Amino acid sequence: MVVLNRIYTKTGDAGETTLGNGARVAKHSTRVNAYGTVDETNATVGLARLHASGEIDAALQRIQNDLFDLGADLCRPDMERDAEAGHAPLRIIESQVLRLESEIDTMNARLAPLRSFILPGGTALAAHLHLCRTVSRRAERLVVELATMEEVNQEAVKFLNRLSDWFFVAGRIANADGTADVLWVPGLTR
């Protein structure tokens, strides 16, 4: 259980932070950038939820919780069981990836196939979901970069890859099931 009695600790004043395993690292490290961008993704989801309701809002709430799981996963570089805590670190698991895939398939079944790329926009919810998509893509790039340097849970990489697709399809749903998508017209302003 997390207990936060004090918000500031001054332990980061020299430009370092503590990972979930107690190790100290630079705040600009790839690992901190990766889970920091996951946190940024979560904040954009919070903005999207201001415009969401019903099933989309419920799904976004689940995604926010999963993003906290992902942050917990990424802040623990050691993949082994934590002997002191007596349990394995929290990790993204296959069922979380499969749930996203199932939700993508269900939403996509309602949509006509795309015949053009779409521009981020349309409804306020769709625009916010496209922001979620681009920030989650950046998080994915950082996690993939981290995986070239250190061991990373591959389900975390898969989760981020599916998540950006989820945001894309949900953005189309938010645009009246794609009928209000803003289509890209190549060379329109030439």
Task: Write structural notes for this entry.
This is Corrinoid adenosyltransferase. It is found in: Cytoplasm. Pathway: Cofactor biosynthesis; adenosylcobalamin biosynthesis; adenosylcobalamin from cob(II)yrinate a,c-diamide: step 2/7. GO terms for molecular function: ATP binding; corrinoid adenosyltransferase activity. A hairpin with a 5-residue loop joins strand 1 and strand 2. This protein has 190 residues and is mostly helical. 31% of the residues are buried. The model has no long low-confidence stretch (mean pLDDT 91). The radius of gyration is 19 Å and the shape is elongated. It has 5 helices and 4 strands, in the order E-E-H-H-H-E-H-H-E. The protein has a domain of 110 residues: Hypothetical Protein Ta1238, Chain: A, CATH 1.20.1200. The strands form 2 sheets. A two-stranded antiparallel ribbon has the order 1-2. Helices cover 53% and strands 5% of the residues. Helix 1 packs antiparallel against helix 2.
